[in-house]
């Protein structure tokens, strides 16, 4: 098994079972999925069939109409593709614990995807401890497994970069496809995947209107192909410019594990491996993204700013906590784009309509929420709430770390100023000078 280092044995309990169970929980795809391949391998080895299980928990924290629609669209691709490989798949509605119990009773071994957020890690640890079955976790959503690249929280991009680059060749090329020899267990889905909006209307979900992206592997490939053919050659020069639309828009697909970062690298490399555009994209999708996963993986909780921020950043905010704020807005005013700043309002409209904000504007969006909130705790809560409610790529390690970056995480100190202290500030004037933003404001 070429990717054996991605596989982690969580616990051993010898037991008989009718199948090998793959609980697909973070990598909702069939292609380039190490967990899936390992499950096939174990099924061949033990000569019992493989069953893929996906649990749809409509009460999942911060889930809403928009995010569930995107998620279920992705499941349609997984369902069809798994069946086309003559492998059994069940999509079941309920809570993780309840559904897993009955499936684990009949399983010999369970495989699942590794998680990177503390709340999910805790939920899974509880499930593991309550069930006497052999369990493996597989790190399939990162280029380098999170606990191999580093065993502690990294300080910044410059500390994790050399570690990633050292291991890159080995993990970049470790994927291996396994031919499945087992029998085909009858597939079933409790969610009508041909009628997703109807299904969602039956649930009592927070009503956030759908964003203009369709979930799933097939759409991820279309988005990627469009990026490669139309935008990639301008990526380095234009990625920061909100007027140019050069970003890939692949983040929602990475968030739901609809596509593997390894497949994205393969696609880009065929096109152009040595260009500055490739290195610029690599810096974002591998170095920054994996730095974010490193941070959340080694954080016990994501609520307390004093524990989350570097000491210098927390201290400097504390020293400036009583500085006069020129504007203070409520969460409702932020949510409804009711600030005095047309550019900021446009970024919030973009989040609500499009389900993501342009990367550069996302920094501005966050920095201004800090500037216009009563204190940093209110600002952090508002950002998490808005980002996780409206962004299709929300609730991700990148969400928390992107937001915390606005508070100084993984950044350096700057010249001291009001409210922000030594934390980097952003001004509207420099945004306008750089990009104009006339088109952006009209969105
Ligand atoms: C306040 C704030 C909130 C953010 N919230 C999220 C979020 O909820 N989800 C999310 O995925 N990203 C978030 N980011 C990081 C970044 O803005 C997005 O990853 C990026 O805009 C996604 O769009 P894209 O895929 O078109 O980007 P591209 O420029 O095409 O980048 C390709 C991929 O590289 C990774 N990437 C790009 N920029 C960053 C970055 N700064 N840090 C880490 N990884 C990066 C992402 O996986 C992205 O999909 C946030 C940043 C800030 C400042």
From TrEMBL:
It comes from the Bacteria. One of its GO terms (biological process) is photoreactive repair. SUPFAM superfamilies: Cryptochrome/photolyase FAD-binding domain, Cryptochrome/photolyase, N-terminal domain. Keywords: DNA damage, DNA repair, DNA-binding, FAD, Flavoprotein, Lyase. This is Deoxyribodipyrimidine photo-lyase. It catalyses: cyclobutadipyrimidine (in DNA) = 2 pyrimidine residues (in DNA). Residues 18-146 form the Photolyase/cryptochrome alpha/beta domain. The keyword DNA repair applies.
């Amino acid at each position: 098994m070429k990717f054996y280092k991605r596989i982690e044995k969580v616990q051993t309990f010898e037991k008989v079972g009718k199948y090998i169970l793959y609980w697909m929980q973070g990598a909702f795809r069939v292609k380039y999925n190490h967990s899936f391949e390992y499950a096939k391998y174990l099924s061949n080895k033990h000569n019992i069939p493989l069953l893929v299980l996906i649990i749809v928990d409509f009460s999942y924290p911060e889930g809403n109409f928009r995010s569930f629609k995107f998620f279920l669209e992705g499941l349609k691709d997984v369902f069809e593709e798994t069946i086309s490989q003559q492998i059994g798949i069940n999509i079941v509605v309920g809570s993780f614990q309840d559904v897993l119990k009955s499936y684990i009773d009949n399983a010999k071994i369970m495989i699942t995807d590794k998680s990177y957020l503390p709340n999910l890690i805790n939920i899974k640890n509880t499930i593991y401890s309550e069930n006497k079955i052999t369990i493996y976790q597989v790190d399939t959503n990162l280029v380098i497994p999170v606990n191999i690249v580093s065993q502690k929280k990294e300080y910044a991009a410059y500390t994790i970069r050399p570690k990633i680059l050292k291991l890159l060749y080995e993990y970049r090329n470790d994927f291996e496809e396994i031919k499945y020899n087992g029998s085909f267990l009858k597939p079933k889905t409790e969610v009508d995947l041909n009628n997703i909006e109807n299904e969602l209307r039956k649930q009592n979900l927070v009503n956030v209107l759908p964003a203009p992206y369709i979930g799933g592997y097939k759409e991820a490939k279309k988005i990627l192909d469009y990026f490669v053919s139309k935008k990639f050659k301008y990526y380095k020069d234009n990625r920061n410019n909100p007027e140019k639309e050069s970003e890939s828009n692949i983040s929602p697909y990475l968030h739901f594990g609809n596509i593997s970062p390894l497949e994205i690298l393969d696609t880009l490399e065929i096109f152009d491996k040595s260009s500055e555009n490739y290195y610029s994209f690599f810096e974002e999708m591998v170095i920054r993204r994996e730095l974010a996963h490193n941070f959340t993986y080694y954080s016990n909780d994501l609520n307390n700013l004093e524990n989350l921020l570097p000491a210098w950043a927390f201290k400097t905010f504390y020293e400036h906590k009583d500085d006069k704020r020129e504007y203070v807005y409520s969460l409702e005013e932020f949510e409804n784009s009711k600030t005095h700043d047309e550019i900021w309002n446009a970024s919030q409209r973009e989040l609500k309509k499009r389900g993501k904000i342009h990367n550069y504007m996302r920094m501005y969006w966050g920095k201004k929420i800090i500037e216009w909130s009563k204190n940093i705790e209110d600002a952090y809560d508002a950002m998490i709430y808005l980002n996780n409610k409206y962004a299709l790529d929300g609730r991700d390690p990148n969400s928390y770390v992107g937001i915390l970056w606005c508070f100084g995480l993984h950044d350096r100190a700057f010249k001291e100023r009001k409210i922000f202290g030594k934390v980097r500030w952003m001004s509207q004037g420099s945004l306008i000078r750089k990009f104009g933003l006339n088109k952006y404001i009209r969105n």
